[in-house]
Write a structure and sequence with these properties.
The chain is an all-beta fold. It has one domain: Immunoglobulin-like, CATH 2.60.40.10. Helix content is 0%, strand content 55%. The protein has no helices and eleven strands. A six-stranded mixed β-sheet has the order 3-4-11-10-6-8, with no helix packed on it. β10 and β11 form a beta hairpin.
């Protein structure tokens, strides 16, 4: 597995009852470097769209990628939920309901194709003010 780190900073402006803005970064810390952003860097109160391809993976074997979500702002970041959709994809995370300033958590995403062919899904980090939606794809061989 390639241990390249790819940094992708995504800023999200969140009204949390104060004039301060919450900001965060999402960093791929393992897996192949095929993350692509499909959104401008700053989208106030909107969703952030990205994609990750696992490429070709042998049937009934597992490949994974890890992302770190960091609160780089000065206010707490409320995480409503984190979920994955799509056959062959699963995820685990250690993110709390509220990510304190300068805090971080990780999400481990698995692709485990049971059949040959194209698979697609998505992982969503749902937060106050907007979501990060990571489109997932892979091909079982």
């Amino acid at each position: 597995m390639n241990k390249l780190q790819m940094f992708l900073s995504v800023l999200l402006i969140v009204g949390v009852g104060s004039a301060e803005a919450a900001s965060f970064s999402l960093t791929q810390i393992s897996g192949e470097s095929s993350l692509a952003s499909h959104a401008p860097d700053i989208l106030p109160m909107e969703n952030q769209y990205m994609s990750y391809s696992f490429g070709q993976v042998q049937r009934n074997t597992r490949q994974s990628v890890v992302y770190r979500l960091s609160n780089t702002g000065t206010t707490p970041l409320k995480i409503n939920e984190i979920f994955v959709e799509g056959p062959g994809f699963s995820a685990n995370h250690n993110c709390p309901e509220v990510l304190q300033p300068q805090g971080s958590c990780q999400t481990l995403i698995y692709f485990w194709p049971a059949w040959q062919g194209f698979h697609s899904g998505r992982l969503v980090w749902s937060m106050e003010g907007g979501d990060i939606i990571l489109s997932l794809s892979g091909y079982g061989i």
